[in-house]
Design goal:
heterodimer, A: 103 residues, mainly alpha, 3 helices, elongated, B: 166 residues, Four Helix Bundle (Hemerythrin (Met), subunit A), 2 domains, 6 helices, globular
Chain lengths: 103, 166
């Protein structure tokens, strides 16, 4: 029976969550779900930062996590405002139909 | 005990993350994402990051996700329509993602030997006091820049949500 968790388990969990975030970003069509997948990727990276902070017994990783959280909150506010504006003008949330910059 | 707690919450996080990706309704995805964030907060506590765990619950699971659910309900977003993906995505998507995960896991296993372990209480430098001290000495400039960023984001969100674009 193991009594302690290897540090690689935490990093592997972080990798799994990051890949799931990439999958959501690539496969989903709703702009809101794509946005939530980005949040999932940010959370996975935060877990890596906190794990490295534990490994080196320093608080710096927590600070990076803190800044990522702040930037993610700002990004969510601006991003959701953009989604609101897009929906007001185009009345769709499907990213396949939002291709006015393509041509 | 550490292993059991880690396994329980890691499994909850992975299952909820899979649910975020496979659910077709945005509300289901959002609630699953709250599950991911809650279990990550417990893992932060196991790693000795008490301040970050509290901030995770308050900022992410609280503020950001409430904003998401508010917007989903405001836009009355329903389940997304099933439509054909491009041929390349169908063939290459999942294998390439599994390859990426395999690559990441390979490097993690190679670079971090199994004798480095995490025990609860092995690192107690993550208190609000320690984080605050580092924040207002070493990281003072990033802190001020980030506060400016938040101000810009508030103004930008208000302008974007009010303006009628032509």
């Amino acid at each position: 029976m193991m009594t302690a968790v290897p540090i690689s388990w935490y990093l592997t969990l972080s990798a799994i969550l990051f890949v799931l975030g990439v999958a959501g970003f690539l496969f989903r069509h709703s702009i809101i779900t794509v946005f939530m997948s980005i949040e999932l990727m940010l959370n996975a990276v935060n877990l890596s930062f906190v794990t490295f902070s534990y490994q080196y017994k320093q608080v710096n990783g927590h600070l990076f996590t803190f800044f990522v959280m702040v930037v993610a909150a700002a990004e969510a506010a601006v991003g959701l405002a953009i989604i609101l504006t897009v929906f007001k003008n185009r009345s769709t949330l499907n990213i396949d139909e939002l291709d006015s910059m393509k041509n | 005990m550490d292993v059991i707690l880690f396994l329980i919450f890691a499994i909850i996080a992975v299952v909820a993350a899979i649910n975020v990706v496979v659910q077709t309704h945005p509300i289901s995805s959002a609630v699953s994402l709250i599950g991911v964030m809650g279990s990550l907060a417990v893992l932060y506590l196991l790693l000795g990051a008490e301040f970050i765990a509290a901030a995770q619950v308050i900022v992410y699971a609280g503020a950001v996700m409430v904003l998401f659910i508010f917007v989903i309900m405001l836009l009355n977003a329903g389940a997304e329509a099933k439509r054909g993906r491009s041929y390349m995505v169908q063939v290459l998507g999942v294998p390439l993602l599994i390859a990426l995960l395999g690559l990441l896991a390979f490097f993690v296993e190679r670079l971090f030997p199994r004798n480095i372990t995490v025990t609860f209480g092995g690192f107690t430098g993550g208190t609000a006091r320690a984080v605050g001290q580092a924040l207002f000495t070493t990281y003072l400039l990033p802190f001020e820049v980030v506060s400016l960023l938040i101000l810009i984001a508030i103004v930008g969100a208000i302008v974007l949500a009010r303006k009628e674009m032509d």
